[in-house]
Design brief:
Largest sheet: 4 strands, antiparallel
CATH architecture: 2-Layer Sandwich
Low-confidence stretches: 162-166, 178-184
Number of domains: 1
CATH class: Alpha Beta
Number of helices: 7
Helix content: 40-55%
Radius of gyration: 19 Å
Strand order of the largest sheet: 1-2-6-3
Strand content: 5-15%
Structural class: alpha+beta
Length: about 180
Amino acid sequence: MSGYELVLPALPPELSAREQGIVRSVEPAVQQLAVALYHRMKARGYRLVFNSGKRSYADQERIYNDTLRARAQGGAALNAAGLAGITARPGTSRHETGLAFDATPTPTTDAAWAVYGQEGEALGLTWGGRWTTRLPDGTTRTDRPHMQLSGGPTVAQLAAGGVLTALLIAAVLAARPSSTTGDK
């Protein structure tokens, strides 16, 4: 052991086991941001319910295909299916890298969504509520539940290799004490 320990945030005890699993599924930095956002929302009088975290390629593909089918039928079909209407193609979603989560403030009002977006952005997250798409029936949709940590390698870069290795090497070198011998 190198003497470095990753400290994960304490999860709020009121989170359900399912929600705890969702928060734990994302990368540690995103876990910390999700918990901080939860506490900020609670301080503003809202309960934050976590709906989705890290996804497999197959899960993202299923959601993407379901969204495409429902989009063709319009906003009512998306509502009935519980879909936002904006979904990344498989292989491009921050959910697949553990850098995104979806959550819903309760009570679920326009004011609550606005607070959720403001608080998430104040923490440095990118809020899907700023993204807009027009459906074939003329209605527009956003992805208000979505929060992601932007920047860093894409899913495609991670899959291609090299980028992750370079990032890991840089992190290890940066974390090493300067007194290490044998390095030139």
